[in-house]
Amino acid sequence: MVISQGLLIARVFHKRYAPKENVFSYKIYYLCLFLRDFFHLNFFRLFSKNKFNLFSLYEKDYGFPDFKPFQGALQELINKQDHPFKIKDVLLITLPRVLGYAFNPISFWFCVDAGGDLRAVLCEVNNTFGERHGYLCMKNKGDVILKDDITKSQKVFHVSPFYSLKGEYEFRFHIEGSSVGIWIDYYLEGKKTLSTSLIGKRKALNDRTLILAFFRYPLITLKVIFLIHYQALKLFSKRIKYIKKPPPREEEITK
Question: Is 86 helix (H, G, I), strand (E, B) or coil?
Fold first, then answer.
């Protein structure tokens, strides 16, 4: 597997099958950054770390209590699993802050071994209630994650107020060269209830591609939070039952 950092231009797809169908998709851009470069991002004029700029990343927006430094915390998390491995590189795929604002529904930490193979992905999920949870995706025997491999996890984190904390997720990942594909399906009582995907290609990350993305997809982070609430209103108008948020779980990461 060949991975590289850059600016990911992608399309988000979202389809609810039940209790009533609802479909939408939109173009978006994500940052793909090696964790080793996370602390050396101030070489861009339009991009800064831990301070305001047109684009920025803030360390406080990621991880969990006692989850820093990030790569050490990820390695510690992997060491606790049944089939640990040594992490060589971590690629973070995430939305940047734009003009100081971002809401990241989900960020992905791709963990690669010394052979360059994908062995684990931590999906860091945020909801609109200010809560965060991680789903650690690894194969049962810790094997390399290939394009068609599916990892499963029980749903334990409240995201949508129109789904309960039941069922399970199926995750699938493909990252090769400039192409990135991420698929997350939600099953309830054995039936596919929701499909989501993020599919796109990476471009070089520099001031030119950043400014082009800014004007081509203006204020994308505001658009994300607007679409979340707009789609919620659509579902509410379809008389889909609203489910009150349960208390958050004590465990922060689920495998």
Answer: coil
Asked if residue 42 has pLDDT above 70, the reply is: no
Between CA 90 and CA 95, with CA 91 as vertex, the angle to 5 degrees is 135
Residue 225: the pLDDT is 79
Beta strand pairing status for 118-126 and 132-137? antiparallel
Counting every residue written for the chain, the total comes to 255
CB 141 within 8 A of CB 83: yes
Place of tokens 């990942």: 173
Does residue 2 surpass a pLDDT of 60? no
Residue 1 lies in a domain: no
Q: How many domains does the chain have?
A: 1
What range defines the domain where residue 55 resides?
A: 6-254
Query: What is the rounded distance in angstroms from the CA atom of residue 34 to the CA atom of residue 39?
Result: 10
